[in-house]
Amino acid sequence: MSERDERPEAGGRAEGWAPGEAGVLPRGVAAQARARLDRMRGRGDLRADQPRADAEGSAEEDASAAQLPPTSRSPATAVVTAGLEPPRQGEPFLPGPVFAGPYHAAGEIDDSPHLYGRISNPGFERYEAALGSLDGGHSVVFASGMAAASAVLQRLLGPGDLLVAPNDGYPGVMQIAREHLALRGVGVRLVATEDEPIRRAAKGASMVWLETPANPGLQTLELEQTIAICRRAGARVVVDNTLATPLRQQPLALGADLVVSSDSKHLSGHSDLIMGHVSAADREVAEDLRQWRTLAGAVPGPFETWLAHRSLATLEIRLRRQEEVATAVFEALRQREDVADVRYPGFSSVLGFDLGSPRRARTFLDALEIVAEATSFGGLHSTAERRDRFGDGQVPPGYVRFNAGIEGPEDVVGDVVRALDLSR
After folding, report:
1. Helices 122-135 and 302-312 sit at what angle, rounded to 10 degrees?
2. What φ, ψ does residue 163 adopt, rounded to 5°?
């Protein structure tokens, strides 16, 4: 029996859905997967105006439950204190990394808090507590942002589901959707990062993946209203919050079910590690993703986790300086007649602009002295790249994605202006 035959009837499913070359599954596999996913889905069919059905226990019952920072604390204080244990005489503020494969674990497996490094690590738990407090949810840390995104897409979607995702966002999500999810019987609907197309596409969807501001085009959404409409349509909503960070945008507080982030960017901020995380409004969903991480082996290293947690404390001050630099560059670019399509969402470190041709963009990048030519964003150093060199066609061939670092704004602007003049 094919999985199309086993797929439930079209109640609530989008017309015209096509699973791609899904192949043939053994009898009963698709039905079992559907039943498991329906149990996991939990709140997927709740309306946005209904209370969340989180079965929250007390802090004593679950020590890993996210602790929201007191509302009186500023973001700067929240990032400094996030995930830190109560002060203990003679102990460091942030305990060092724990390097362990196996742990001493005599007796039954529940007799020890840690059994094996692929399952858990004290550093993971501290960093997850920090991220959960900032996102307002239950966090799971992964070896990379793509590992985090893959866990959500592969674990929470199954045969018969429909995913709505951006066709102008991070290319890795589209690649997984087209090359992997479709082959597993998951319908894929790609739409532009615009509120109305997303809201229309959400009808019949199991999951809607949002990215705002989008990378690399920096499109933004009316997030709260779009989330509400997608949830009323019965979809679980996931928001990639990498570019905004929890200091500038709180998707879970706006009604999203999950937040995904590449912590390689702003959260760690030093361009020296690869990491990612997922925060879920529902603890059971977070635990299911944690189990998936263990099964897939997508765990970060203990030293990288410690570095990320250490670096988190300076997020607010780094982000403020990056926005100061980004604003200065944005204002300088807007004054020039030889620069087109200058984009900046008004926060975060990333802006974009079009120099008209690949040749001029390459000449501009070659002429920079302070600004390094490199991919990614969110780091201390100002960087830039011709984004279309990857060939995904999301932006014009002469489009430059610029990441503002923490150098002096006047120095960065001077470097940019000089390179623009030399590139004409």
Report:
1. 30
2. -105, 130
Query: Which amino acid would we find at residue 341?
Result: D
d(CA 309, CA 125): 11
Of 246, 248, 242, 249, residue with least CA distance to 227: 249
List, in order, residues 6 or more apart from 334 with CB less than 8 Å away: 342
The 3-class SS string of the chain reads CCHHHHCCCCCCCCCCCCCCCCCCCCCCHHHHHHHHHHHHHCCCCCCCCCCCCCCCCCCCCCCCCCCCCCCCCCHHHHHHHCCCCCCCCCCCCCCCCCCCCECCCCCCHHHCCCCECCCCCHHHHHHHHHHHHHHCCEEEEECCHHHHHHHHHHHCCCCCCEEEEECCCCHHHHHHHHHHHHHHCCEEEEECCCHHHHHHHCCCCCEEEEECCCCCCCCCCCHHHHHHHHHHCCCEEEEECCCCCCCCCCCCCCCCCEEEEECCCCCCCCCCCCCEEEEECCHHHHHHHHHHHHHHCCCCCHHHHHHHHHHHCCHHHHHHHHHHHHHHHHHHHHCCCCCEEEECCCCCCEEEEECCCHHHHHHHHHHCCCCEECCCCCCCCCEEEEHHHHCCCCCCCCEEEEECCCCCHHHHHHHHHHHHHHHC
User: Each residue of 80-135: pLDDT tens digit?
Assistant: 999 999 999 999 999 999 999 999 999 998 999 999 999 999 999 999 999 999 99
Judge whether 138 and 283 are in contact, CB under 8 Å: yes
Residues in the chain: 424
- What's the pLDDT tens digit per position in 241-256? 999 999 999 999 999 9
Report how far residue 310's alpha carbon sits from residue 74's, in angstroms, rounded to the nearest whole number.
Answer: 19
**Residue carrying the six token digits 């802006």:** 351
Single-letter amino acid code for the residue at 44:
G
What does the alpha-carbon distance between residue 210 and residue 193 come to, in Å, rounded to a whole number? 8
CA angle 374/376/378 to nearest 5° reads 115
Question: Is the pLDDT score of 200 beyond 60?
Answer: yes
CA dist., res. 336 & res. 249, Å (int) = 31
- AA letter at 92: P
Residue with token string 């996913």: 37
Q: Which residue has the tokens 């920090």?
A: 130
What percent of the chain is predicted at pLDDT more than 70? 83
